[in-house]
Design goal:
mainly alpha; globular; single chain; 4 helices
Length: 116
């Protein structure tokens, strides 16, 4: 996530040498993607209250849907405004997803079913 935020910041602000920094951030993102992908699937299987198979299925479906929605939203944003706006919208979507995940996690922890 830090790499994506760095790429978004470099896209939004013109920085001398920003191209090199963006390339480093992108390389870090590419290297981290394998760990995120495998680790995310394993974590979904391990933490799913519905079972391993259903957890992996929901995780993979959400990942695929995010790819489709991201491509459509990114193309529309680039056509409507410009490419730096795509990075800003992407960063806003990441922040919204983190906030929604925190709220859902807090609600799950407070529910009576979680205490069983």
């Amino acid at each position: 996530m830090a790499s994506l935020c760095a790429i978004a910041a470099l896209a939004a602000v013109r920085v001398r040498g920003g191209g090199v920094l963006a390339e480093i951030a992108f390389a870090a993102f590419v290297v981290a993607w394998a760990v995120i992908s495998v680790g995310g699937t394993a974590l979904a299987a391990q933490r799913s209250p519905a079972g391993e198979g259903e957890g992996i299925g929901v995780y993979n479906a959400a990942s695929a849907a995010a790819g489709v929605v991201g491509a459509i939203l990114g193309g529309w944003t680039a056509a409507r405004w410009n490419y730096p706006a795509v990075a800003a919208v992407g960063a806003a979507c990441i922040a919204a997803a983190v906030a929604l995940g925190a709220v859902a996690s807090r609600r799950r922890a407070q529910s009576p079913a979680a205490s069983r």
